[in-house]
Amino acid sequence: MDSLPRPQRPAPPLPAPLRPPPGPPPGPDTGEVLQQIMAITDQSLEEAQARKHALSCHRMKPALFSVLCEIKEKTVLSIHGVQEEGPPSAQLMRLDNMLLAEGVSRPERRGRGGSAAATSTATPGGCPNDNSLEHSDYRAKLSQIRQIYHSELEKYEQACREFTTHVTNLLREQSRMRPVSPKEIERMVGVIHGKFNAIQMQLKQSTCEAVMTLRSRFLDARRKRRNFSKQATEVLNEYFYSHLSNPYPSEEAKEELARKGGITVSQVSNWFGNKRIRYKKNMGKFQEEATIYTTKMAVDTTKVGGLGSQASCPSTPSSGSSGPFPLTSAGDALITLQTLTSLRPAPAGGGLRSQARGGWQGAAPPVSTASPAGDLSSVNSDASN
DNA sequence: TTTGATGATTCGTA
DNA sequence: TACGAATCATCAAA
Length: 385
What we know:
Layout: H1 30-39, H2 45-56, H3 61-79, H4 90-101, H5 116-120, H6 128-174, H7 182-223, H8 230-242, H9 251-261, H10 265-281, H11 287-304, H12 327-340, H13 352-357, H14 367-370, H15 374-377, H16 381-384
Helix pairs in contact: 4-7, 6-7, 8-9, 8-11, 9-10, 11-12
The protein binds a DNA duplex through residues 124-126, 223-228, 248, 266-267, 269-274, 276-278, 280-281, 353, 356-357, 359.
């Protein structure tokens, strides 16, 4: 604390040049007083208190004090001010931002969406309800981390406050015996805060690591496959089999399918990707499924009588309006029924995508060539597109 | 436990 | 960038 050099104890008698000039000594000389001051810390508390009191009352004390002040003024400036606290480091700011983004820094909110991370994360997997468990688990663990973080932070802050108060009091107390300027106390408080900030940074770093670990585990968990709901599968299959000649839903169609099935657009894309490739690989296997859906479509078409499956199937650029006849989707479906059993590679000129990839015409027979119901192709917008 | 089904991911391609 | 193809990982029924 004190920057003044302290001699080894027991303090040797001061050399002659430092001794006060000879004169009528009213009591112990200055050297003796200084020696007593230096020896105070070696004594027992009671003894020291008594001596301290005696020294405080000594008539030479003000003079000694002013000498100490003078010496300190000369030395303190050169010693202090060297290690000023710099601005918060980039690392600390990064940690703060991260904790804020993860919802750890903020106080916990009640109700749904306890954290930004949990609320902002989409819930792929088909069944949002299934994920709620993982979600609540994630939120619970994040909440646990948040609690520990805040509790530790509070502890550190309290310890910091207590220690600061203690040191401040100590310095104020010492200021009665030696010159301690308010600025010096302030600087000391700054040093203490700096030390505690370092500890806080470690705490923040550990918290960040914990959140990252939790997050990665959560993301891994999301990777787990969940079967789509029956409704989602039906919606997707209906679209697929009703647009068999061109099972490439537009973005709008995907969005609508996603909405209807309660899944994400990305999952719709995945599903169609898988479906196309699997259908193409083993069309025989899907015949029964195709029959089921095409029959369903046909029934729906009959029931609705004109609007047909368009009511249940999202529109697609390739399956646009085909006029007043409900043949757009049902047409495909009927064609599917008739052609599934006699599948054979078709000549070029299939659907839209088949032109681009050369893949689909081999799977979904072009209506104009493979379908006995060739007439339908003329009104099937899928084929015509 | 095995096996088929299926959603997700990755990589190459046009 | 969307798609096909291969593959992985998991689910669920047998």
